């Protein structure tokens, strides 16, 4: 049975329902599943809870789903780049569960590994701890965080073979592997689908067991903050890294 | 004269130990790599999934797949390694990162740190700051000693929502360097041209001798 689908809409068919929880890969606009986000927009599915480190920017990435009012709740660590997000949030139209970045990654990883909860020091003594169980281990206080079990994961990789064995590129890996693992079903978009046998098995970042459906680009891959250095010999001194 | 941003960054760079892995926050900490002392080699971690962070790319060589935690385009170095976010914060939570150098809005005499949220203003989120201060071995804060109204940011107790409780080890400001020790703060160093009286006057926290 092939995992390869012709478009985002085809790949999402039969997987969507109102009120569902979706894990999405990406950090900022880097490594986001832009085609599958478009597919969600086209589908009209609504009342979504989306676990994603960020919420895109106005009009791109998850920002598109905010514009169409398909999102009920975001589980994120940082949402600073999106004015429409702020407008909906401050108007009480959008729920937001702030989760520290590492806790969010671990919640996805844990859910994917069948672990319903774990203890971490992150957030102890802060608002993040409100309503959470505290427990001491070896004289240190930890708080209980829950694994994320998503109805669907949408992720983006660089290359995958036809069975979904996937390779990511540079920092575009980010949340994609843990997000993929956290989904009961995972749809992945890649820049290139390659024949089975053409990827070195020792170099697979995410095994195909986590990938149920697969589509191929093209991707816009928008840059959020374009920063460069001058080519002069003085490069590297006195400038912000 | 109090230290300027570059002098604060240069002082923070003196904290770096050869051969260690370090995470730098946004703001003044991003200037620290310009002042790494001769003979010291550190590997910079970017919590979005990279060890071995290089400088900004030359114009025309920006790669949308290669960014830092501030979402800025960057480059790799010969010993760069990439990994996913769960692994990245695993090494942070697991205490593998020797030091984080971070900016702050407020620090308290017990090491409490506030640097993510001002109530009533737009809330952007904590990002990875709470994970970093809870996980790395040593937290060094770099910030101005007072706010733009001249009020101390080195306090008896933080007024803003906390990023972490009792997490700060050393504070580097435009006026000097202070360590968090039992009972309060201890003066380590005073900026050139600043008097101890100036430093004490600008500090609300208890300074112990």
From TrEMBL, chain A:
SUPFAM superfamilies per the UniProt record, alphabetical: NagB/RpiA/CoA transferase-like
GO molecular function, one term: CoA-transferase activity
Highest taxon, organism lineage: Bacteria
Signal peptide: none
InterPro entries from the UniProt entry: 3-oxoacid_CoA-transf_A (IPR012792), CoA_trans_fam_I (IPR004165), NagB/RpiA_transferase-like (IPR037171)
Keywords, in A-Z order: Transferase
Protein name (Swiss-Prot/TrEMBL): CoA transferase subunit A
TrEMBL record, chain B:
Gene Ontology molecular function terms on file: CoA-transferase activity
UniProt KW Transferase keyword: yes
Gene3D superfamilies: Glutaconate Coenzyme A-transferase
SUPFAM superfamilies with a match to the protein in the record: NagB/RpiA/CoA transferase-like
Family the UniProt entry places it in: Belongs to the 3-oxoacid CoA-transferase subunit B family.
Pfam family, one: CoA_trans
Organismal lineage: Bacteria, Pseudomonadati, Pseudomonadota, Alphaproteobacteria, Rhodobacterales
Protein name: CoA transferase subunit B
The entry's keywords: Transferase
Domain of life: Bacteria
């Amino acid at each position: 049975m092939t995992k390869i689908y012709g478009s985002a809409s085809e790949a999402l068919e039969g997987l969507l329902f109102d009120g569902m929880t979706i894990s999405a890969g990406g950090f900022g606009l880097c490594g986001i599943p832009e085609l599958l986000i478009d597919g969600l927009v086209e589908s009209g599915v609504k009342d979504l809870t989306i676990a994603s480190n960020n919420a895109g920017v106005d009009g791109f990435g998850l920002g598109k789903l905010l514009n169409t009012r398909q999102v009920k709740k975001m589980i994120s660590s940082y949402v600073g780049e999106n004015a429409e997000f702020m407008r909906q949030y401050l108007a009480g139209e959008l729920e937001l569960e702030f989760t520290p970045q590492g806790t969010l990654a671990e919640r996805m990883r844990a859910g994917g590994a069948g672990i319903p909860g774990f203890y971490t020091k992150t957030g102890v003594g802060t608002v993040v701890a409100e309503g959470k169980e505290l427990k001491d281990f070896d004289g240190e206080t930890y708080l209980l965080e829950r694994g994320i079990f998503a109805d669907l994961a949408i992720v983006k990789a660089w290359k995958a073979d036809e069975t979904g064995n996937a390779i990511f590129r540079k920092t575009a890996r980010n949340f994609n592997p843990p997000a993929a693992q956290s989904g009961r079903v995972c749809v992945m978009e890649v820049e290139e689908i390659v024949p089975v046998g053409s990827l070195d098995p020792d170099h697979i970042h995410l095994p195909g067991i986590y990938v149920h459906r697969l589509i191929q680009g093209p991707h816009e891959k928008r840059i959020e903050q374009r920063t460069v250095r001058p080519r002069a010999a003085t490069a590297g001194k006195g400038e912000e890294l | 004269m109090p230290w300027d941003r570059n002098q604060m960054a240069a002082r923070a760079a003196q904290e770096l130990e050869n051969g260690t892995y370090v995470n730098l926050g946004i703001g003044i900490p991003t200037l620290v790599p310009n002042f790494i002392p001769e003979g010291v080699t550190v590997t910079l971690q970017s919590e979005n999934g990279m060890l071995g962070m290089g400088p900004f790319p030359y114009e025309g060589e920006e790669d949308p797949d290669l960014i830092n935690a501030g979402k800025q385009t960057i480059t790799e170095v010969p010993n760069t390694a990439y990994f996913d976010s769960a692994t990245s914060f695993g090494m942070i939570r697991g205490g593998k990162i020797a030091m984080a150098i971070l900016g702050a809005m407020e620090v308290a005499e017990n090491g409490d740190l506030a640097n993510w949220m001002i109530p009533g203003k737009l809330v952007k989120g904590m990002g990875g700051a709470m994970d970093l201060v809870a996980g790395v071995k040593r937290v060094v804060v770099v910030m101005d000693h007072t706010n733009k109204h001249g009020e101390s940011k080195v306090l008896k107790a933080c007024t803003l929502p906390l990023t972490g409780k009792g997490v700060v080890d050393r504070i580097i400001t435009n006026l000097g360097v202070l360590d968090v020790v039992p009972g309060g703060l201890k003066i380590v160093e005073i900026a050139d041209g600043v008097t101890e009286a100036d430093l004490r006057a600008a500090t609300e926290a208890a300074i112990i001798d």
